[in-house]
């Protein structure tokens, strides 16, 4: 049987674009359909614009600290439209890069929505049908609003980059990555930020000690965080949005931002009819090789809701190409993935939290918390934390958790050691780089806790 293409990719985000161009580079005939902007969540409305906003938000405290270091400096105002214009131009540039990469690899791009019509063909929005030996679904996910009265008045993360002006006050709902990152960003940009989280502590699932320190610092930086609190309903008034909360309070905000999780983009793709299995959250169920219940159909990235991070989607794409186009069956390795939460202070983490490790067996915990030199000199009381969770039997470092400025940069490197299976003694054999914050990771002498 002959097909129009060897591979048809649905979705032009980090995973889909990588799979398409690498497969094309191996000589496969590849097409890709994307109905929005090329680059997907990460490039257009996620990691990249978010990180640029993190940078923008960090200049106010930097300017204050500069004065403490002897500079004659005063902080002016932040001009959102000026930043937004530059941000928009940068995203256009990156989208162009993505399109250029696809073009150079010989991938045929259809700028329209595609749905599945049978195990070997897709239907484009203009009605044409394209057949392919393999179909890869990489349609990502989207933010969801909770089912509360007036939820439509709130915004979600997709909207934040396009606001015509920054609000004076905002309520952020949620306690996960997006909620905490944007609470810090907007606070840094001068917005009055209130955060409601329904649970007992933000950043559920991460190391408890790290969560506690981040929350304390966020509060010290001026964010009003309310635990055990959720939205009952929102009403639009002449002056803003009146929010009724489960803590019995009613408060008005200029804006409400729902950072209450994301949902895989599987609606209306025609998956059910083909027998592609979906999980309870609407995610595509795949095996270790990203293959669905229909052998010709694969799925990668957030649409599979495994580990929803850009570099993981890219690895899933590479493993898919190796398996299908290079004849090397390559399972995706989801173990010991380092990651960072770009809060202020930043959080870098890899491996097991103290709580997870303790549940698995005897451990030793090595940890230190201190005022780092740079901000301490400037008169700040900020604290950082370095922590190693060690298996008491094998001495392997099971988890490393860093709360500190640039913790994302640090955990990338510590992640190599942890992934290699390094022991605590391997860390100890490494000479300190002085004076740095991360030198504490190789000078931790006695366990803070044995459990
Ligand atoms: P998360 O799952 O991290 O957080 C969702 C938050 O919303 C949780 O605190 C959750 O509470 C709360 N929530 C869920 N439903 C409701 C509801 N109905 N009412 C009130 N609160 C609710 O999702 P995010 O959207 O923040 O991020 C999605 C994913 O994107 C992340 O898991 C991560 O994989 C990725 N991401 C990674 C980043 C990075 O690497 N730096 C940055 C941003 C996103 P509860 O804890 O009680 O369930």
Task: Explain what you see.
This protein is α/β, with parallel strands linked by helices. It folds into three domains: 5-141 and 263-325, FAD/NAD(P)-binding domain (3-Layer(bba) Sandwich); 151-260, FAD/NAD(P)-binding domain, CATH 3.50.50; 339-450, Enolase-like, domain 1. It is 32% helix and 24% strand. The protein contains 14 helices and 22 strands. The protein has helices spanning 14-25, 40-45, 47-57, 59-68, 80-105, 157-160, 177-188, 208-220, 271-274, 310-325, 354-360, 373-377, 407-419, 424-429, and strands spanning 5-10, 30-33, 108-110, 114-118, 121-124, 129-137, 141-143, 169-173, 192-197, 224-227, 231-236, 241-245, 250-253, 255-258, 262-264, 297-299, 339-341, 347-351, 363-370, 384-391, 397-403, 449-450. Strands 1, 2, 3, 4, 5, 6 and 16 form a seven-stranded mixed β-sheet that branches. A six-stranded antiparallel β-sheet has the order 17-18-21-20-19-22, sandwiched between helices. A four-stranded parallel β-sheet has the order 10-9-8-14, covered by helices on one side. A hairpin with a 5-residue loop joins strand 20 and strand 21. It starts with a strand and ends with a strand. The mean pLDDT is 97. Bound molecules: NADPH dihydro-nicotinamide-adenine-dinucleotide phosphate. The site of NADPH dihydro-nicotinamide-adenine-dinucleotide phosphate (NDP) has 24 residues, from helix 7 and strand 17.
